[in-house]
Amino acid sequence: MAFAQQLIAWQRRHGRHGLPWQGTRDPYRIWLSEVMLQQTQVATVIPYYQRFVRRFPDVGALARASEDDVLALWSGLGYYARGRNLHRAARLIAEQGFPRTALDIAELPGVGRSTAAAIAVFAYGERAAILDGNAKRVLARAFGVERDEKLWALAERLLPKRGIERYTQALMDLGATLCSRLAPSCERCPVVRACVARRDERVAELPAPRKRRALPQKDVQWLVLRRNGAVLLERRPSSGIWGGLWCFPELTGRAPAGAKRLSPIEHGFTHFRLRIRPLLLKSGSEPYLNRARTPISWMTFAQAEAAALPAPVRTLLGRLGEGVR
Length: 325
Ligand code: ADE
Fold this sequence. Notes:
Mean pLDDT: 93
Number of helices: 14
Number of strands: 8
Bound molecules: adenine
Helix content: 40-55%
Oligomer: single chain
């Protein structure tokens, strides 16, 4: 049996079924789910996806929302450029309609070649090839191929004439379950007998990890100012890390006398590691605020928790809140 047919038969019995974005052909919902699923696991995405479709049941509702509201609902999913691009794309789609081919879908902000293909497959049944991290691992191992260009050509050659939706889901599912990076379950794999990596004992080497340099570390100080059960947050400029999200104000320079040091928080980004040193200040220390262009707001804990916050701000609020609530 051909590769695609093996995968399709396997998906029917052993793949993932009943995910909330399956069983619809609505391009809006499929696009939303595929963007959320970039770099993020299914289990994490499910509650976010459900909140989004409840709050924004169609692309018009998402387009009419403010960026702040969209980022607030995105808060905790990470990679916030995705949330900002989602909102921009919603405004384009609301004006121009949803693009109808993988090629045109790939023009939307935040949608690359593989994501566009997945959307075109699930929404329209287009025969388009995906090559996300999971699909890449499956194909690299099964065929012993490493270079991206070759993998794309292979991915396109393998597409079945019928059943493109289930085949695409199968690649995703096999990569996410049996064909995992560190602990693959080859004994249960539907294509183990033809697998080149298995035959050559190269499963652990394929696909070769991208070369990683040691990530640089950056240090920042955060000012924690409190007043009557509220905390002072600042909205970051729309470019740069956490653009548009609410954060504790940053302090440049020396900590003021009387500031209390709280335990640092470490946060990993793709290109660097951030060590955050929070400083608790007495109220009346507002002069330390670097009063620049950014909006600031005193928020109660409840207001802050509903706002667009990056994970470390949530972590710190959680620590501060113990004992308050
Ligand atoms: N990862 C990317 N897209 C996915 C999908 N539609 N279902 C499950 N995992 C995925």
